[in-house]
Backbone:
């Protein structure tokens, strides 16, 4: 079983988002970077599958050298080796093209991505990557079982879930459920030491995107909250009905 | 110039998100000088309903329970046949899965989580959610063909009745497109769909025990609201994962979001920041959620919820 896990380096979920240079750039000052949470579910599932079935887990990241701490964390969690495609990620199409170009002749049995990255939320890489490679994709994937050459997966539909089957190789876009929060792998000291010497190959990027984020803005600030006494919920209902007009 | 719109159906009926996408497509068509053509896949009883939101034509294709590849393949054929330069999708899981595949097939640029009509068409500039709802980006889209995937409940449904011509579309998904095999659906029957809901009642650890959720459900039922929850209660198994709203769960944009016993961590606020009105009920007057709220009550959820349910029942008579 040869597994590829795609990893994005993203701001920690607690980050307060601000912008710099006249709202044209994300302000990275003081920001902590982590493995994209959806990718982390996928990486943890990849480790479980490797332990059960044998094989290798490789990670791939499109990014500059500043993403390497996050890549080393993936290696500390247990990936065997990593590849960094040296380019500034600009959009989903460029990232998917880079990963497809890398993966196309490597004969991976399974490619796991996150459902989306929590920074630019494109959610388009898994579908694009699969289309570029000419294989099936399941996004979001909340259960993933492999038996022989067949992947059985669960995806979300609006109003429930759908169970689907595909031959390998397939692209599965992880979200919580692929593993539970309690099954997420946390690097231990041995893993962290081992990660220092695991292979991290750097290859040049060459793809280009077709969209560009020009400016950013933040949601308009809220007016002050109207406080209502707990003994007077009728007042709240009255305000929701006559002032907010939402019920 | 034709604007195509994917008119998703569920067992032969459209939902609000379909009408939202058609509304957007017809306004976009007016902006770029053209008309909106809906693509319907599978049997639908009332295709004409799309005319109410501005679609002047509907192309009907065969295929039930179509997967992402199948949808992308049929839309690619429809786009090539009509010469469409813009393709609009609603913000459902199916649409979000199919649109990126279509973008590759058509060599089109794509923007997802779009919240408004383009601010300019040359260059083509749209506003989309980024950082899981904590901010917005204005994205310039290049390329001859552009694909827009909406953020549910942001643009809204707008009526604009026109007469609609329904035609059979030519083309079908290939065997390779449908090689992802459908096994079964596990539907959550009777529940209001959370992403589409106009009213949401959400609760967190302040409920103290999963056994207390009956009153949350009673409140939601009285309002006709969907139920949701915070990440901690989904993680400890009090509520199912698909109810988890926040940065790593589902993003919602209802008219009213009622948060009960949720402190308002920044990750939770990211998922609900597009709600039009927010009510917060919490025992702690210092809970950060009050800063993001329109209306607040400091009090014990277990005392306040039943009273609130009664007061709403009274209003509804």
Residues:
């Amino acid at each position: 079983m040869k597994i590829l896990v795609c990893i994005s380096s993203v701001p920690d979920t607690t980050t307060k988002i601000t912008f710099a240079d006249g709202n044209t750039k994300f302000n990275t000052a003081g920001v902590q970077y982590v493995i994209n949470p959806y990718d982390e579910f996928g990486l943890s599932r990849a480790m479980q599958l490797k332990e059960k079935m044998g094989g290798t887990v490789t990670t791939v990241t499109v990014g500059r050298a500043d993403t390497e701490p996050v890549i080393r964390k993936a290696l500390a969690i247990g990936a065997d080796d990593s590849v960094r495609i040296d380019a500034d990620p600009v959009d989903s199409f460029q990232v998917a093209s880079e990963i497809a170009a890398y993966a196309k002749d490597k004969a991976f049995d399974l490619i796991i991505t996150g459902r989306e990255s929590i920074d630019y939320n494109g959610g388009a890489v898994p579908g694009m990557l699969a289309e570029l490679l000419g294989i099936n994709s399941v996004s979001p994937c909340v259960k993933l079982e492999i038996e022989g050459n067949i992947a059985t997966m669960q995806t979300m539909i609006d109003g429930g879930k759908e169970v689907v089957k595909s031959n390998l190789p397939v692209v599965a876009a992880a979200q919580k459920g692929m593993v539970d929060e309690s099954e997420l792998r946390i690097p231990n000291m041995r893993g962290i030491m081992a990660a220092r010497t695991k292979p991290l190959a750097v290859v040049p990027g060459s793809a280009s995107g077709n969209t560009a984020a020009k400016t950013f803005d933040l949601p308009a600030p809220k007016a002050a909250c109207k406080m209502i006494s707990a003994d007077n919920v009728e007042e709240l209902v009255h305000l929701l009905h006559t002032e907010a007009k939402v019920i | 110039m034709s604007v195509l719109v994917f008119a998703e159906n569920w067992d032969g009926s459209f939902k609000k998100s379909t009408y939202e996408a058609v509304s957007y497509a017809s306004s976009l068509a007016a902006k770029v000088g053209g008309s909106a053509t809906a693509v319907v896949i599978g049997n639908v009883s009332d295709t004409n309903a799309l005319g109410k939101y501005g679609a002047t034509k509907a192309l009907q294709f065969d295929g039930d329970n179509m997967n992402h590849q199948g949808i992308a393949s049929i839309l690619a054929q429809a786009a090539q046949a009509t010469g469409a330069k813009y393709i609009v999708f609603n913000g459902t899981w199916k649409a979000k899965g199919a649109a990126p595949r279509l973008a590759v097939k058509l060599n089109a640029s794509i923007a997802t989580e779009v919240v408004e009509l383009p601010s300019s068409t040359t260059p083509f500039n749209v506003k989309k959610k980024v950082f899981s709802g904590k901010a917005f980006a204005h994205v310039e889209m290049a390329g001859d063909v552009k694909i827009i995937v909406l953020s549910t409940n942001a643009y809204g449904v707008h009526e604009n009745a026109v007469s609609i011509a329904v035609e059979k579309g030519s083309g079908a998904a290939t065997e390779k497109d449908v090689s992802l095999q459908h096994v079964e659906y596990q539907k959550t029957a009777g529940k209001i769909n959370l992403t589409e809901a106009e009213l949401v009642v959400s609760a967190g650890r302040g409920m103290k025990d999963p056994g207390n959720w009956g009153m949350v459900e009673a409140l939601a039922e009285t309002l006709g609201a969907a139920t949701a929850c915070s990440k901690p209660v989904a993680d400890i198994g009090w509520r199912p994962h698909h109810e988890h709203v926040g940065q790593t769960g589902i993003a919602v944009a209802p008219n009213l979001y009622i948060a009960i016993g949720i402190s308002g961590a920044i990750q939770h606020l990211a998922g609900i920041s597009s709600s039009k009105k927010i009510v917060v009920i919490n025992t702690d007057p210092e809970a950060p959620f009050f800063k993001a709220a329109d209306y607040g009550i400091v009090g014990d959820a277990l005392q306040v919820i039943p009273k609130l349910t009664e007061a709403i029942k009274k209003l509804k008579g």
